[in-house]
TrEMBL record:
Residues 1-20 form the signal peptide. Keywords: Signal. This is DUF4876 domain-containing protein. It comes from Kaistella pullorum. The keyword Signal applies. InterPro entries: DUF4876.
Length: 404
């Protein structure tokens, strides 16, 4: 019996020592020792339009001690942790599935002071899908019908968005339309869609290099004519950032002196004109000149001469220009389902096509919105597949004018 009592006494002493060692105010002895208290902390993930959390890594750090607890949320939105009282920062990063079934990168943080037996913290996740440069957010090329049912060939535009998390500069950005059509397919020699993009026109947004800053989530508009077209059922484009010039008297362009003109580097059309085809059949790209290149060197070094056999069986030779794929930062193919024959960009630039029809319908193609940043700016879908990234036959975002 004495042996048993001795053993029990030793165990009790050991238990007392372990408890004290966990004390936050351990002096080794005395009644002032404090036993560390713990809480059941439930971390819940949340995000607008997120349907599930595919794999989100969560890191919980106690800010005073630096102690870190890690856990991966795999197809779950909540988990409970057993943690000591303290002040914690919760960081989450990973992949989530949107209600649209798109897979996106997400991240979020939260802070919480734990001082009760049970605690809860909500981590609001934001989409982190950022591009490296501007994206083509919208193209209006179809045209409209006037009130007296005539075709109106003005008020076309490009809307380009800064889909990054940094300030971008529109200075010296290239905008070009395709030499070939998605609805016409010939045996072209030479032709390598994975190396270059043959063009029918090129305009450049001139600037000093830092003259036209665009904040994250903001956009610029490049209009064919930056005036109010609403009397003809077009759009009010007076607040455009640039306009592309034309000397064609039949189009009735009136220069807006408050809006800078883009520089036309090359066009196949007369009157120094750049014109977007009314029917879905072109591709459009935006690009950057790499170091050492500029409009003059482009004209000198990037000529593109190709040939094909025409309907009469003769060889047709055409002179044009081409943009190396390495310069291109975004691309969109357009086509008509009944007439589609091929994609006219490299697959890594754009693997599908979008559409707006019929001609003069006032419809546009617009990039899909995945979510919003913490300050309410849209984040746009960018998978390099216009069939997935764009909404067809959209209403213009400028139905009430250019509002920022």
């Amino acid at each position: 019996m004495k042996k048993r009592l001795l053993i029990f006494g030793l165990l009790a002493a050991m238990a007392t020592t372990v408890t004290v060692s966990c004390s936050r105010d351990d002096d080794g002895f005395g009644s002032g020792a404090v036993v560390a208290q713990k809480s059941n902390l439930t971390v819940t993930l949340s995000g607008k339009d997120i349907s599930s959390y595919k794999n989100v890594a969560v890191e919980i750090q106690e800010v005073n001690t630096g102690a870190i607890t890690k856990y991966n949320f795999v197809n779950q939105s909540a988990h409970t942790f057993d943690l000591p009282y303290g002040s914690y920062k919760v960081v989450a990063n990973g992949e989530a599935i949107m209600v649209s079934l798109d897979e996106v990168q997400v991240g979020g943080t939260a802070n919480i002071d734990i001082n009760t037996a049970t605690s809860n913290v909500l981590v609001n996740l934001q989409i982190k899908q950022f591009s490296q440069d501007f994206l083509i957010e919208e193209v209006f090329f179809t045209g409209v019908k006037t009130p007296d049912n005539k075709n109106y060939n003005n008020s076309r535009y490009f809307k380009l968005v800064n889909n990054t998390d940094k300030v971008l500069y529109a200075d010296n950005l290239i905008i070009s339309g395709s030499e070939f059509f998605t609805t016409v397919k010939r045996v072209i020699t030479p032709y390598n869609v994975e190396e270059y993009f043959p063009i029918s026109n090129m305009m450049v947004l001139t600037g000093s290099g830092t003259q036209y800053p665009v904040q994250p989530g903001d956009f610029i508009v490049v209009a064919d004519n930056a005036i109010d077209h609403t009397a003809s059922n077009g759009f009010d484009l007076r607040n455009a950032d640039f306009e592309f010039p034309s000397n064609n008297p039949s189009l009735g362009h009136v220069d807006n002196p408050a809006v800078p003109n883009a520089a036309v580097v090359y066009t196949k059309m007369s009157f120094n004109m750049i014109f977007l085809y009314t029917t879905s059949q072109e591709a459009y790209v935006i690009a950057r000149f790499p170091a050492g290149e500029n409009p003059a060197t482009f004209i000198q070094n990037y000529k593109y001469t190709y040939s094909y056999t025409n309907a009469a069986g003769n060889t047709t030779t055409v002179n044009s220009y081409k943009i190396p794929n390495s310069w291109i930062v975004d691309a969109v193919n357009t086509s008509r389902d009944a007439d589609f024959l091929h994609i006219i960009t490299g697959a890594s630039l754009d693997a599908g096509y979008t559409s707006a029809s019929p001609g003069y319908s006032g419809k546009t193609v617009r990039r899909k919105v995945l979510g919003q940043t913490a300050n309410g700016k849209n984040i746009y879908k960018d998978t390099n597949n216009s069939a997935s990234d764009f909404t067809r036959d959209s209403q213009s975002s400028f139905i009430n004018g250019i509002i920022r």
